[in-house]
Amino acid sequence: MGRHSSPHIVAIDGPAGSGKSSVSRAAALRIGFDYLDTGAAYRAFAWFVNDWGIDAENTDAVVAALADFDYSIGIAPDEHFVRVGETDVTDAIRDPAVSAIVSSVARIPEVRAHLTQLFRTIAASSKRTGIVIEGRDITTVVAPTAEIRILLTASEEARMARRSAEISTQSAETVAEQMRSRDRADSQVVEFMSAADGVTTVDSTHLDLEATIDAVLDVINTYREAIA
Ligand SMILES: Nc1ncnc2c1ncn2[C@@H]1O[C@H](COP(=O)(O)OP(=O)(O)O)[C@@H](O)[C@H]1O
Ligand SMILES: Nc1ccn([C@@H]2O[C@H](COP(=O)(O)OP(=O)(O)O)[C@@H](O)[C@H]2O)c(=O)n1
């Protein structure tokens, strides 16, 4: 038997290091939803452009590459993978070299429109009751009509500390500077530092990971009737 209606959507946005990926995946696992990390697609496309030797600043060449971008991602929260063609890029897209160029491809409107369409198609393919979608413009552009929309924030200091604890190959100062400049670049294209109308803010500055997951689940449960 096929599924009868489209999956319910929990939309989560926030800046780098706010906890979007870890919190969204854990929340999805807890409520039996799928999970879609949209930043992974922007990263994978940046990886692809770089792999083809295209300059990320060459807008025409980057846009032309979209036609050959064969992307797939696992949306089961416990089976995460990211592939471009036959190549598994799950780890490669986290490389600082990718982080350094991803905002350049993400600023291009044609790239955003193409990936937004892809996200809607992937979300619609979910066989579960619902899907948690996480990124920068999910509450505003990708799924503005989602029943549940959350902005996950944390102070810049907390976000930098979390991210530099994860990356051992670079100094804390380098990691912080790169994150700050990526947030600056991204902010010129999408609004993810303040909540749009109807979006609930969860500030994790003074919460640990478990408490943040609980806070997000609280918001989801508040709207539970709508998604039951
Ligand atoms: N509330 C929190 N307290 C402490 N660490 C957290 C919290 N939320 C996330 N983290 C950790 O911070 C790091 C960055 O989180 P991540 O989910 O990758 O953020 P984002 O997807 O927003 O960039 C991860 O190592 C994660 O375990
Ligand atoms: N919905 C989204 C998600 C990511 N992105 C871009 O993709 C990059 C990587 O996103 P990410 O979610 O993996 O970044 P982190 O917050 O995990 O560091 C961002 O810096 C943005 O340039 C976007 O433009 N829109």
Automatic annotation (TrEMBL):
Its main location: cytoplasm. It is an enzyme of class 2 (transferase). Residues 1-20 are annotated as: Disordered. Its EC number is 2.7.4.25. SUPFAM superfamilies: P-loop containing nucleoside triphosphate hydrolases. It catalyses: dCMP + ATP = dCDP + ADP; CMP + ATP = CDP + ADP. ATP binds at G14, P15, A16, G17, S18, G19, K20, S21, S22. The keyword Cytoplasm applies. GO terms for biological process: pyrimidine nucleotide metabolic process. GO terms for molecular function: ATP binding; dCMP kinase activity. Pfam families: Cytidylate_kin. InterPro entries: Cytidylate_kin, Cytidylate_kinase_dom, P-loop_NTPase. Residues 10-221 form the Cytidylate kinase domain. GO terms for cellular component: cytoplasm. It is found in: Cytoplasm. Keywords: ATP-binding, Cytoplasm, Kinase, Nucleotide-binding, Transferase. Signal peptide: none annotated. Belongs to the cytidylate kinase family. Type 1 subfamily. This is Cytidylate kinase. It comes from Cryobacterium shii.
